[in-house]
Design goal:
The protein has helices spanning 3-6, 28-33, 35-41, 76-88, 107-114, 175-190, 229-242, 259-263, 287-300, 320-323, 328-340, 405-409, 415-428, 430-434, and strands at residues 9-12, 45-48, 92-97, 126-127, 149-152, 157-160, 195-198, 249-252, 274-275, 309-311, 344-348, 436-443, 446-453, 456-463, 469-470, 476-480, 489-490, 495-499. It is of the alpha/beta class and 500 residues long. Strands 9-8-7-3-2-1-11-10 form an eight-stranded parallel beta sheet. Strands 12-13-14-18-16 form a five-stranded antiparallel beta sheet. Strands 4-6-5 form a three-stranded antiparallel beta sheet, with no helix packed on it.
């Protein structure tokens, strides 16, 4: 069993995790200082959102240099210290890699834009207008209305950007560009990173001749792009990782809602190691809906090379606690689901605290995609400014003291201790980490399934309803999200893990 199948991955949005130097922005040294907290919690792997030099128009996802650290976060030397100390404590580190687009301030784009004859012109996607003078196609960019094409008057062509016009798309059809991007991976692999989360990796291949259906353009082009040549590019990326050892991992952001389409990005064990399945971020809180999602995911990920992932929150979406209307019972049940389903779970920093989205006043809004609420800073201490030496770049969540690490470490029945207990249970139990999924069913608002590993059988039961429920089961109660004492007897919103 490879390590990344057993691991629990913890996503850190560096700006919002821990500030060590008093500028109001989290940094690498802040992360390094909290490694012991993450070890105590029971985390295996850290995923860092982008730390590269950037004009920060998309807060690091507009990369101006793929092989350095933005001074806002620290230095390469501090990154090396973080890697060294993390590895010494048994933690692995994944970096966010942004292969689809760079910043318009990247030297490659500045050269590409300088003239049609520049040697790097074809490193980005340039097209003439159509014969009628219209855009090269009808694609809509992410984050609001607007074309994916921007006219460059100096060189007389349009360039493609699936996101902001300051994020031009790289042209993966160009061999030299592909080789240069492969070298950016090697730069970090040589420094000891354990792998990469790969941003919108399904966008690498594009069929520019095909318009999007008019009734789907409201979605933007991002969730519609699914082009066969992308798989060739992914095999090339996988080959780079395989140059090192089979311990380096690729986790793809494949923003497609159909698990069957997501599963194709694993290839035959020669493309992505893991691929995000984001349907869980949009699934209604009901037993039937989750049964259908789990069944569809299990069916799609059945091949040996396709191991599922599960996620409830991240830096792009409303936090699960906010989606569940601040209902603490449901929040604990959701955490139970996340950590007991077959696959690799991804926790978003603060999720272990039940952190909600912050309310961001209009004069504090900074993100072009409206995602500030889920990126609010992690509160460490009870008292203001909650462990931050300066006012942070975004406001804290309301009632930040209640959600602080200090408060919850001191309360044995807190969400933090519940999450730690779940993680400890998962680490000890091969059935929960590696077992197959059996007997998946939903009835009367109750979801249940069994994890079976070499004859060890553990049942997970989740009561999605607002009434008490009974499930006929003989076994020993290993964990209850609501402090229950009897296996199969469920309070409203309660989840149980039962040894059969």
């Amino acid at each position: 069993m490879t390590w990344w199948r057993d691991a629990v991955v913890y996503q850190i949005y560096p700006r919002s995790f821990r500030d060590s130097d008093g500028d109001g922005v989290g940094d690498l040294e802040g992360i390094r200082r909290e490694l012991d907290y993450l070890v105590w919690l029971g985390i295996d792997t850290l995923w860092l959102s982008p730390i590269y030099p950037s004009p920060m128009k998309d807060f690091g996802y507009d990369v101006a240099n793929y092989v350095d650290v933005d001074r806002l976060f620290g230095s390469l030397e501090q990154f090396d210290s973080l890697i060294r100390d993390a590895h010494a404590k048994g933690l692995r580190i994944l970096l966010d890699w942004v292969p689809n687009h760079s910043s318009s301030e990247h030297p490659w784009f500045l050269e590409s834009r300088s003239s049609r004859t520049n040697s790097r012109r074809d490193w980005y996607v340039w097209r003439d207008a159509r014969e009628d003078g219209s855009m090269p196609n009808n694609w809509v960019r992410a984050w609001g209305e607007g074309s994916t094409w921007t006219w460059d008057g100096a060189s007389g062509q349009y360039y493609l950007h699936c996101f902001l016009d300051s994020q031009p798309d790289l042209n993966w059809a160009n061999v030299d560009l592909r080789l240069a991007m492969h070298d950016t991976l090697r730069f970090w692999l040589d420094r000891g990173v354990d792998g990469f989360r790969m941003d919108v990796v399904h966008l690498l291949g594009k069929d520019l001749e095909v318009d999007d259906p008019d009734d789907l353009k409201v979605l933007s082009h991002v969730p519609l792009n699914d082009v066969p040549v992308t798989h060739e590019y992914l095999r090339g990326i996988r080959a780079v990782l395989d140059e090192y050892d089979n311990e380096r991992v690729s986790v793809g952001e494949v923003y497609l809602m159909d698990p069957n389409r997501v599963a194709t990005y694993y290839g035959r064990g020669d493309e992505l190691h893991l691929s995000f399945n984001f349907a869980s971020l949009y699934t209604a809180w009901s037993a039937d809906a989750w049964r259908d999602l789990i069944a569809a995911t299990e069916a799609a990920m059945n091949p040996a090379d396709a191991w599922p992932t599960w996620v409830m929150s991240n830096h792009d979406n409303v936090r699960v606690a906010t989606r569940l209307e601040d209902d603490d019972r449901r929040v604990r049940a959701a955490m139970t689901l996340l950590l007991t389903l077959r696959g690799t779970p991804f926790l978003y920093a603060g999720e272990e605290l039940g952190l909600r989205d912050a309310t961001i006043p209009p004069d504090c809004v900074v993100d072009p995609g409206g995602r500030d609420g889920c990126r609010s800073p992690l509160p460490w201490d009870l008292d203001e400014p909650h462990g931050w030496p300066a006012t942070p770049w975004l406001p804290f969540v309301e009632d930040a003291s209640r959600f602080s690490v200090q408060a919850q470490r001191g309360e044995r029945d807190s969400m933090l201790h519940f999450t730690k207990t779940l993680l400890d249970l998962r680490r000890r139990d091969d059935a929960l980490r590696r077992g197959d999924t059996e007997d998946l069913m939903a009835s009367d608002g109750v979801l249940r399934f069994i994890r079976n590993h070499e004859g060890r059988r553990v049942m997970v039961v989740v009561n999605f309803s607002d009434v008490h429920a009974e499930v006929a089961v003989k076994g020993r109660l290993l964990l209850s999200s609501a402090g229950g004492a009897r296996a199969g007897r469920l309070a409203p919103g309660e989840a149980q893990v039962i040894e059969l």
